[in-house]
């Protein structure tokens, strides 16, 4: 039996039920292709006759998840167009999620709905001498920024919530127009401490404004540079390299070097995948060795421990 392997490590085929193999062969997928699918974590791709991805998925058990597609009547159109299924093994769920998100954005498969957009993220920047924070692109290096928001709408809603929480004045922040000498509407509702009518000094208001912005920094990238996240399933070890909430790739025992870009553009989906897990201590962080050849090219390496040690 010929087995196609596109992952790190050695994979032993396991028998698939006769019914599943038969149904696959009827729609043009070789049974041997399905028998080679592993029972470990990773991503899988349904490919058309030209080898282009129709659908990309992830699972902690690739074999079981692919079998589930053949039991779903709504996916018959996808299955009819599929001629081959390939996969990439990952050492755990986090790596599978990261790679799936990256590949879907790159290939834009027609049968994937989620994760296809790479929309910009937003932050707040307070210009020097100003009372009014401005919404800026998170990746714009010209600005010192606070907070991380998945959309302009989320940024506006999140900032308004901070304004109310800290009793800031919408009028001074440029969000409300008031006539001279009159209190803003928020003050009439008891949400503003009265900076608009002189009950609070501009200096005191600015200090609380900076405090409110500072509280948003918990969502910014909290590390000095790239970090490594180690995963192992007992057979495969990997370190996933992340910088400024961008997934840059994974290192494995047989490929311990990774070239890093000069700057990484944030992926909000990577933030959603990792931020809560990192904050809860659910992921193992490791030190990376970052070297610079002097020409703006950075290389990342990691020394894996011997499994027998």
Automatic annotation (TrEMBL):
UniProt keyword Hydrolase present:
yes
The segment(s) forming the GIY-YIG domain are 39-113
InterPro entries reported in the protein's UniProt record:
GIY-YIG_endonuc, GIY-YIG_endonuc_sf, GIY-YIG_UvrC_Cho, UvrABC_protein_C
Source taxon at top rank: Bacteria
* A GO molecular function held by the record: endonuclease activity
- SMART domains in alphabetical order: GIYc
Keyword set for this entry?
A: DNA damage, DNA excision, DNA repair, Endonuclease, Excision nuclease, Hydrolase, Nuclease, SOS response
UniProt-recorded name of the protein: Excinuclease cho
Question: Organism, per UniProt?
Answer: Noviherbaspirillum album
């Amino acid at each position: 039996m010929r087995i196609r392997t596109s992952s790190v490590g050695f994979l032993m085929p396991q028998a698939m039920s006769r019914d599943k193999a038969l149904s696959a062969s009827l729609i043009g997928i070789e049974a041997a292709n399905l028998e080679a699918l592993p029972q470990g974590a990773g991503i899988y791709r349904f490919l058309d006759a030209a080898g282009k991805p129709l659908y990309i998925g992830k699972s902690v058990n690739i074999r079981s998840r692919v079998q589930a597609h053949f039991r779903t009547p709504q996916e018959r159109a996808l299955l009819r167009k599929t001629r081959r299924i390939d996969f990439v093994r990952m050492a755990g769920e986090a790596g599978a999620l990261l790679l799936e998100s990256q590949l879907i954005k790159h290939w834009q498969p027609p049968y994937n709905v989620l994760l296809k957009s790479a929309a910009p993220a937003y932050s707040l920047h307070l210009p020097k001498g100003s009372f009014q924070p401005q919404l800026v692109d998170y990746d714009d290096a010209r600005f010192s920024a606070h907070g991380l928001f998945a959309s302009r709408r989320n940024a506006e809603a999140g900032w308004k919530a901070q304004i109310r929480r800290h009793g800031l004045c919408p009028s001074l922040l440029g969000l409300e127009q008031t006539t001279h000498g009159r209190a803003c509407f928020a003050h009439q509702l008891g949400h503003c401490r009265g900076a608009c009518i002189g009950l609070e000094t501009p200096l005191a208001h600015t200090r609380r404004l900076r405090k409110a912005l500072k509280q948003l920094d918990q969502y910014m990238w909290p590390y000095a540079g790239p970090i490594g996240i180690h995963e192992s399933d007992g057979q495969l070890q990997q370190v996933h390299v992340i910088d400024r909430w961008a997934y840059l790739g994974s290192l494995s025992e047989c490929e311990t070097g990774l070239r890093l870009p000069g700057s990484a553009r944030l992926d909000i989906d990577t933030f959603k995948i990792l931020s809560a897990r990192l904050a809860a201590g659910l992921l193992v962080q490791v030190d990376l060795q970052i070297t610079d050849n002097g020409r703006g090219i950075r290389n990342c390496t990691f020394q894996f421990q011997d499994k027998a040690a």
